[in-house]
From TrEMBL:
One of its GO terms (cellular component) is cytoplasm. NCBIfam families: hutI. The keyword Coiled coil does not apply. Its EC number is 3.5.2.7. Keywords: Histidine metabolism, Hydrolase, Iron, Metal-binding, Zinc. One of its GO terms (molecular function) is metal ion binding. This is Probable imidazolonepropionase. It comes from Adineta ricciae.
């Protein structure tokens, strides 16, 4: 049975890829996103089950589909329709908070100083271990619902506050469970190598991930107990070095995961060059990327996931996004939502990307939709408004789509409906 939904009367439809079937946008194409506008007539979008089947003026769609039964009509008079945001980098499953560290950071303590004193990720790992499954699931689901209602229809979710296998496995299982509680799309990333546990060295932890953890993970994936997409590591001076990172990432690749990791964040480590060499689909942060790293990522078409909120909160220099875009690196955006960078609003990431990284509004939107989809390997079905793609949409009550970015941190009142796979959520 076909369920048809017609959205009509819209003022603007921001298609992002102009129905050209692009899987990611680079260079000038990031600025040249398809915006269908009409002040004189309304615009329609027809959905069959989960998929977009037609886009056009109200009159054209009415004529083309005359006599076709529509089950649900959504009046979008005066509204703008955008693709749902795709958050390419989050750490959503944890307990406790780090508000006590916030004041320390404001007073000048660095991220690594706090981490070395036992704070940071180590603190959150302890709090997460102490929390019950129920409490972790409840807080995870609440965070995911908040994201969905703020327009994020697909999100990358990392583990990483377990570190040791039994704790990481618990987080993986809870992330799986969350799928049945919230209709947001979830891409799971295995990030046991997020920090070094107290009782191990980085080398011992690397051996454990390569020899034991990834093997155990593969077994559960083969048995269809878990559906994990990517492998991650915090490749950073004083955490996992470049060779340990390479081993961890290749062990993940070996079991069928895609490479998507934290690199060149606080120090230059050669992450971008190494990631491009081993076929990483995405690398996040890149505040300290080299020119050679930019060249390597552009050539390999490895997606750079920019997290402006993190640089902002840590008061570090932001990545050289203009140089990346000019060199042809596909740039995506994420919130990095975690107890350090406490925001899951993609509108804030886009605003910071524009102001601090000097991206245009169009580039920021392309980065938050089609290129984030590419970072997760899902841009064949998600990330733009195109015939044949999934109907993950935001219907906004504003005179033009830019308001979603312009109204800094205050955009949710503009969102009239979020649609996931064609259904209002
Ligand atoms: O992307 N850099 C490592 N991971 C996170 C921070 C996680 C945390 O501090 O809890 C990041 O910024
Ligand atoms: Fe992160």
């Amino acid at each position: 049975m076909t369920l048809r939904t017609l959205i009509y009367g819209a003022r603007q439809i921001v298609t992002v890829t102009r129905n050209r079937n692009e899987k990611l946008l680079c260079g000038k194409d990031m600025h040249d996103i398809g915006i269908v506008k009409s002040d004189a007539v309304g615009l329609s979008l027809l959905i069959e089950n989960e998929d977009i089947v037609a886009i056009g003026t109200d009159d054209d769609i009415a004529r083309e589909f005359e006599g076709v039964e529509v089950d649900q009509k959504i009046d979008a008079t005066g509204c703008c329709i955008l693709p749902g945001f795709i958050d390419a980098h989050t750490h959503p499953i944890w307990a406790g908070d780090r508000v006590h560290e916030y004041a320390k950071k404001l007073a000048g303590a660095t991220y690594m100083e706090i981490m070395r004193e036992g704070g940071g990720i180590g603190f959150t790992v302890e709090q997460t271990r102490l929390a019950s499954d129920k409490d972790l699931l409840v807080s995870l689901v609440a965070r995911l619902k908040r994201m969905l209602h703020a327009g994020t229809t697909y999100v990358e979710c990392k583990t990483g506050y377990g570190l040791e296998w039994p704790d990481e496995l618990r987080l993986l299982k809870l992330l799986e469970q969350a799928r049945s509680h919230v209709p947001i799309g979830i891409s799971i990333t295995y990030c046991a190598a997020h920090a070094i546990p107290k009782n191990k060295t980085a080398e011992e932890m690397t051996d454990d991930i390569v020899n034991n953890q990834t093997k155990a993970l593969k077994k559960l994936m083969d048995e269809k107990e878990l559906n994990v997409n990517d492998i991650d590591v915090f490749c950073e001076k004083g955490v996992y070095d470049i060779e340990q990172s390479r081993r961890i990432l290749l062990a993940g690749k070996e079991i069928g995961l895609s490479i998507n990791f934290h690199g060149d964040e606080l120090n230059y480590t050669g992450s971008a060059e190494m990631g491009a060499e081993i076929g990483a689909r995405a690398i996040s942060h890149l505040e300290c990327i080299s020119d050679e790293g930019i060249r390597a990522m552009a050539e390999a078409k490895t997606v750079a996931v920019i997290l402006p909120h993190t640089g902002y909160i840590l008061r570090i220099e932001l990545p050289p996004v203009r140089r990346m875009i000019d060199a042809g690196v596909p740039v995506a955006l994420g919130t990095d939502a975690n107890p350090n960078a406490f925001s899951s609003a993609m509108s804030i990431s886009m605003n910071l990307a524009c102001v601090l990284c000097r991206m245009s509004l169009e580039e920021a939107l392309a980065a938050a939709t089609i290129n984030s989809a590419a970072a997760l390997g899902i841009s064949d079905k998600y990330g733009s408004i195109e015939v044949g793609k999934k109907a993950d949409l935001i219907i906004c009550r504003c005179p033009s789509w830019e308001h979603i970015i312009y109204q800094f941190g205050d955009h949710t009142h503009l969102i009239r409906h979020v649609l996931k796979h064609g259904a209002i959520v």
